[in-house]
Amino acid sequence: MPKLIVAGPFAAPDHVLAGHPERPSRVTAAIAGVDDLMLDTDRIDLETRLATFEELAAVHDDAYLRELEAFCKAGGGKLDPDTYASPVSWDAAREAAGAGLAAVDALANGRGDFAFVVARPPGHHALPDRAMGFCLVNNVAVTAAALAAAGERVMIIDWDVHHGNGTQALFWDDDRVCYVSTHQDHFYPGTGALDETGGPNARGSTVNIPLPAGATGDVMARALDEVVAPVVARFGPTWMLVSAGYDAHRDDPLADLALSSGDFAHLASIVRAFVPSPGRLAFFLEGGYELDAVRASVAATAGALMGSDHAVQPATNGGPGAEAVSRARAVHVEPREHDLW
Amino acid sequence: MVKTIVVGVDGSLDSSRAVEWAYELAEQVGARVVAVHAVGLLEHEIGDPGGDHLRPRLSEWTAPLDQLPPDRVERRLVAGDPVGAIGAAVSECGADLVVVGTRGIGNRHGERLGSTSAHLAEQCACALVIVPRAG
Q1: How many domains in chain B?
Q2: Domain encompassing residue B24
């Protein structure tokens, strides 16, 4: 039986704004999904570990981090129309980012086969110099940067319904990190078009697969099989990180894709097969705002990793998006003979 | 000569002053005005990914622009945060001036963090006018 490392739950109960959908109960729901698997001794829970300023500064501007810390300690407030901070948010952000670092350390030390970072606030919209889209610090990017600095080749697969503009921006011209995103097209944050493929030193290391509203699980799976699998083979990652948002679930109130919890089991099993060697796969909770959907989808994801079936909803199919996947394949796969890799 | 003005709009009092300022300049110099509202995560409604439900409000927030000829006024809803949305509009429109209020619906006056105008002052690809508050 494989072992699952769980970095969390880090729910940051005082990082909260009344009525806001990015709330502590999201983490409570996610960890309930892990609990549902009843893994007993096959589950390893990690302690809190705060990311240091230097670890955060690998991807964020020093000035932004100093201002964020001071802003929080002065009482916090709104950072953009969507994003808030409270007096504890600086430490919450450090805890969420540190959880990813602790997770990959534990994997690297052979303590488990897969890791799930169950923490908030989420991270994939956070830019080098500003907070955005509920995100203060880019958790998955902090971990990817640490791995890349240690000589690893990192692939980030982001299946959150929103494009991870922050993660893309942070590794735009860095050929050590390949960023892959499936997301709802023509939607927040307005980035993630097919022709966004990386900077001059990393052409082809950004792979966007925008999907139409209503896309179902079979379309997402096809995107992984037909577009991402060839990219994996070409890039040759030594680590795989997943920005695991669950707002592509059909019950999510903030978006329009149509996946079920069962689809996330299928997607996780596909991603598991991409991993180059055991103990090199970590999932990071990003979005997902319908609590039952988050719980069931996390259970389905972790269950698929562990080889047990916790996909309580059947997989979905028949939604639009086949043409979008074909277009993505034409951009990201077919013309690559001349590429960097 | 100013030909295209992008004005950031969010329904706040400060943004209303920016719209009025942009209108007055556009009238004097014959410029076109592109009013931009950033559609955030919290403004999304199921079945309306483009944010069309916000169009009546955008029209209301930018009512002074109705005094210009219709072919010199454009109202845009752009997904993203205000800094990114205004930056994208500047690139797409070839704007030569951006007008914003001192502070939108965000935070305390005088703080850089969370301030669209402060970020634009650092990053804007063209001239920027930050319209001060009254008093």
Answers
A1: 1
A2: 4-31+43-131
Interface ipTM: 0.88
Walk along chain A (341 residues) and give the pLDDT tens digit of each residue. 899 999 999 999 999 999 999 999 999 999 999 999 999 999 999 999 999 999 999 999 999 999 999 999 999 999 999 999 999 999 999 999 999 999 999 999 999 999 999 999 999 999 999 999 999 999 999 999 999 999 999 999 999 999 999 999 999 999 999 999 999 999 999 999 999 999 999 999 999 999 999 999 999 999 999 999 999 999 999 999 999 999 999 999 999 999 999 999 999 999 999 998 899 999 999 999 999 999 999 999 999 999 987 777 999 999 999 999 999 999 999 876 445 55
Q: Which residues of A touch B81 (CB under 8 A)?
A: 80-82, 130, 132-133, 189
Q: What is the DSSP letter of A314?
A: P
Specify whether the CB–CB gap between B54 and B85 falls below 8 A.
Answer: no
Does residue B78 sit in helix, strand or coil? Answer: strand
Contact B112 A191 (CB under 8 A): no
Contact call for residues A173 and A202 (beta carbons, < 8 A): yes
Q: With an 8 Å Cβ cutoff, are B105 and A191 in contact?
A: no
Contact A71 B40 (CB under 8 A): no
Catalytic residue, from A124, A125, A249, A310: name it: A125
- The C-alpha atoms of residue A27 and residue A40 are separated, in whole angstroms, by 20
Q: What is the CATH number of the domain that holds B116?
A: 3.40.50.620
Q: Residue B116 burial by CB count (10 A; 0-12/13-18/19+): exposed, middle or buried?
A: buried
| Interface residue of A22, A80, A125, A137 to substitute, partner B, most B CBs within 10 Å | A80
Structural domains in chain A?
Answer: 4-338 (3.40.800.20)
Interface of B with A in 60-119 (CB under 8 A): 78-85, 88, 104-108, 111-114, 116, 119
In a domain, B36, yes or no: no
Q: Name the pTM for this structure.
A: 0.95
Hey, which residues does A259 pair with through a beta bridge? A249
- Alpha helices per DSSP H over chain A: 25-35, 53-56, 62-73, 89-108, 139-149, 165-170, 217-223, 229-235, 261-274, 291-306, 322-332
In chain A, which among 67-96 make CB contacts under 8 A with chain B? 67-68, 71, 77-82
Contact check, Cβ <8 Å, B44/A255: yes
Q: Do A190 and B85 touch (CB under 8 A)?
A: yes
User: Any catalytic annotation for residue A125?
Assistant: yes
